[in-house]
Design brief:
- Two copies of one chain form a homodimer.
- By secondary structure, the first copy, chain A, is an alpha/beta fold.
- In chain A, 37% of the residues lie in helices and 20% in strands.
- Chain A folds into three domains: 15-107 and 123-244 and 450-460, Aldehyde Dehydrogenase, Chain A, domain 1 (3-Layer(aba) Sandwich), CATH 3.40.605.10; 249-424, 3-Layer(aba) Sandwich (Aldehyde Dehydrogenase, Chain A, domain 2), CATH 3.40.309.10; 468-494, no CATH class.
- Chain A has helices spanning 22-41, 44-60, 62-73, 77-100, 149-156, 170-186, 200-208, 221-232, 254-259, 261-273, 293-305, 314-329, 383-388, 405-415, and strands at residues 3-6, 11-14, 107-109, 112-114, 117-119, 122-128, 132-135, 161-164, 194-197, 214-218, 240-243, 249-252, 285-289, 309-310, 333-337, 346-347, 350-355, 371-377, 393-399, 419-424, 462-468, 487-489, 492-494.
- In chain A, helix 4 packs parallel to helix 5.
- At the A-B interface, helix 4, strand 3, strand 6, helix 14 and strand 20 of A face helix 4, strand 3, strand 6, helix 14 and strand 20 of B.
- Strand 20 (419-424) of chain A pairs parallel with strand 21 (462-468) of chain B, so a sheet runs across the interface.
Chain lengths: 504, 504
């Protein structure tokens, strides 16, 4: 039996959905495999139209989606409304990416006669992998779930997508799927283009199924490990793109702490407490100078004023209590704490503090929820060794004043190997979905060199294929002599429309 | 004790090299880690100069390299001379790739004010991973070993490279390293830019070392599995780029078999027996029409005339005998066999044959060496089910006549999900090293969506990094407003030199 739970009331309701059986998972993959064949033969314009149709459907039925999520996630209406817009925007971005076409990395090397013989003509571009399984996260019921970026990018690449409904928002998953599936059918997509499975066992069966060609995953390291174990049992390995964990250190310089203490305190409070701190980019470690009493006092005052926050589910609330307890055991002191009533689903925000010279890897554990650890440094030289104890993160943030070039350079030098994005004088939360974005980072932030947000996320679900001395009739349109995509011709990048691929 | 063996004479000579100890591996990684820091701060022009210096050194000392390889590999002089030229050419190609700069995937999204708030400026490009371990193959002592493509591409990306000397050509490995290392020092590269370790245990210690950020590997599936097991034991997973195994089916149409029987037979004999069949792209499965007696007769006659071939080492000769025996047990008949004297290191070429309707996955096992299996089909409809039994390959080849469009389309449809390159009316051996090349394929051809040959091989050793609202002083030169590389600005691809990154 599957359940939907409202974390605000704690009410648990049985839903009218059966866990997907192994046979149904197999049937799902049969449809998806058939769809893969159709999708790859359709032109790019067909696919970008499909993606825009899905975006329109999400926008059109946004109110239904928000209502369902209000009842299942504990998140606020404005946050959820913003997230539906972001999810729709992601489908639109990937439609643009497909239309633009350079994601295909199309390249042509013409044949060359040389003293050592003829070098053949080679044409190369990226092609879809085949059916992709997507496991969304609890904390983004839209933008990183059924209607999320993994779905949009895998589909944009030309792959069918099989979704695993998230147990923490099962009704939202079902409704999102219903909306996307209906829109896809209306746009002429074949059956199997989008599929969904329910239940943990079905998720494992999905990852184990030989027809699945890749997995997109956003969630905990422990669940990722369990799925990677399933992948190790497969006859053929497949890529697993996991976005797992992140502490997101934020470092404030001495001068910035003086010049902008109020502004930084306000920004930090919003970034740490927004969405009740349940964001993978929440700044969890705040390096502030020992002298920055004004900044710390403002943070302490703000957190002390807070009431309790309802979290996404009881597991997250339990972890929050457990891990924050471990940090205190490891030497962090409680600087501030909210004072609301706590339930199985709600916790009080907290601010811990520790001197940089006492900071160890034991204090460098992610607490998912409204908590940050202040690391007070006396001297800049204390920062690099402390950062060394921080595991790979999605982001790092540096606040400094324009003239503090040496400080910036030293901190960037200490952190650049350990993160995927460096933010200056801002906050890491509120990830922009755009062409240049990178949302990934060294282990355990992610387990690959890829992004799960932004245009280049599409690369995860593609592989290169080369054609040697191919007659035009077997070539994809993008590799024929006339083409509408940017290409590399004999090593030189040529923009779309420039006609230089003619035989020579 | 380490040995150098001449497979022509079978003579085994102790070499004056100790297996690298764990402590020495650790010291190696300490130097490489320091070098990583220096390499990443040098401009691209410095690195392309370094790569060209290495190419020049290989060319200059080519005769020494060829002599060493003649004494250790059993390969012919002309093959080895060609391979040194290819190895040098690979360093030059990557120098061009570095100069051109679009491999950085540089992108800038300017800040945008919108009703939902300000979207920050994001600048993104690829940065080096850090120290890379490279395990070369036995069959390419230059182009896929110490002086090979993995070394060139990892170094081009800005990473130090730690080489594992191949036990099958240990003197060639030492000499190649000595030449490259001296050239790198002369070009001003810091100590640790190139390092080498000797012995199987050192190889394992290398892969286990926390400072190693990626592994490039060309070799057997079993060795790859052993190294992947080491990676699973690491605290942080790292990418392992393995090129492992390939059967390379080649399909001849009815009309091509009639129109070009002599030409195809000659091409096939050269492709199957060249380098004694010890090429990862050797066409191992030849699908020919049942009526193509002329083509088959020509192949049988040519193989029967052959003497025995000296292979690279005794392990390969033993495997050759074992696996070809297994194929016969699985139902393949011996159609032809060379008749030279065999030794521990040499074998006779062979041609096996099986009807397509009897073809099973048991006959679809790679035999490394001068052997091919002819699969005779009565009707085109027999081809797809037989291809279904073939594991993922680097290549497939189709011979057809211009008017046989339906035949081509059907075979491409059956094979395109299973290979990385499709060759038309040619042969898969003799891989062109160029911008558009792809040398990779679905498992077990490789274990990732990447190529190990051609310009895009560099992508394996890079990861994205994004800068948000960064002051110019912390940005890499390629991401500053004036830049000499092609970039994507607000979604539009802009060629180098076009000045459009100015703030707006």
């Amino acid at each position: 039996m599957l359940y939907s739970t409202d974390p605000r009331s704690g009410r648990r309701t049985a839903v009218d959905i059966e866990p997907t059986s192994d046979d149904e998972v197999a049937a799902t993959l049969e449809r998806a495999t058939a769809a893969a064949h159709v999708l790859r033969s359709e032109p790019r314009a067909w696919r970008s139209h499909l993606l825009r149709s899905l975006a329109d459907a999400l926008t059109r039925r946004g109110e239904e989606l928000v209502s369902a999520a209000l009842a299942e996630t504990g998140l606020t209406r404005s946050r959820l409304e913003g997230e539906v817009a972001r999810a729709a925007g992601q489908f639109r971005l990937f439609a643009d990416v497909v239309d633009e076409g350079s994601y295909l990395e199309a390249a042509i090397d013409h044949a060359v006669e040389s003293p050592s013989g003829r070098a053949p003509e080679i044409r190369r571009m990226l092609v879809p992998l085949g059916p992709v399984a997507v496991f969304g996260s609890s904390n983004f019921p839209f933008a990183f779930s059924v209607a999320g970026g993994d779905t949009a990018s895998a589909l944009a690449a030309g792959n069918p997508v099989i979704l695993k409904a998230h147990s923490s928002h099962i009704e939202v998953s079902r409704l999102s799927f219903e909306i996307l599936d209906a829109a896809a059918r209306s746009a002429g997509a074949p059956p199997g283009t989008l599929e969904i499975v329910y239940g943990q066992e079905a998720g494992r069966a999905l990852v184990a199924h030989p027809a699945v060609r890749a997995v997109g995953f956003t969630g905990s390291q422990s669940t990722a490990e369990a799925l990677l174990e399933v992948i190790r049992g497969r006859a053929e390995p497949i890529p697993f793109y996991g976005e797992l964990s992140s502490l997101n250190p934020l470092i404030v310089s001495a001068q910035a702490a003086v010049a902008r203490s109020t502004q930084i305190a306000e920004g930090l409070i919003q970034s740490v407490l927004g969405s009740s701190g349940q964001l993978c980019t929440k700044p969890g470690l705040l390096f502030v100078p020992g002298a920055a009493t004004e900044l710390v006092d403002a943070l302490v005052a703000a957190v002390s004023r807070e009431g309790s926050h309802v979290l996404l589910n009881d597991r997250i609330a339990t972890s929050y209590r457990e891990i924050s307890g471990r940090l205190v055991d490891a030497g962090a002191e409680t600087a501030a704490r909210g004072s609301g009533p706590e339930t199985e689903f709600s916790v009080n925000p907290a601010l811990l503090v520790i001197p940089a010279h006492d900071f160890t890897s034991e204090v460098a554990e992610e607490v998912f929820g409204p908590l940050a650890v202040i690391v007070r440094y006396r001297d800049v030289s204390e920062i690099p060794p402390a950062l060394d104890a921080v595991p790979g993160s999605l982001t790092a943030t540096i606040h400094s004043e324009p003239q503090e070039q040496d400080f910036r350079a030293a901190v960037v030098d200490a952190i650049e190997d350990r993160v995927g994005r460096i933010v200056f004088n801002g906050y890491p939360t509120g990830v922009r979905v755009s062409w240049a974005q990178h949302h990934g980072g060294p282990w355990p932030a992610t387990n690959t060199q890829h992004t799960s947000v932004g245009a280049t996320a599409i690369r995860r679900f593609l592989r290169p294929l080369a054609w040697q001395d191919a007659p035009e009739d077997v070539l994809p349109t993008e590799l024929r002599n006339d083409s509408d995509v940017p290409r590399r011709i004999d090593g030189a990048l040529i923009l779309a429309g420039a006609s230089t691929a003619q035989g020579r």
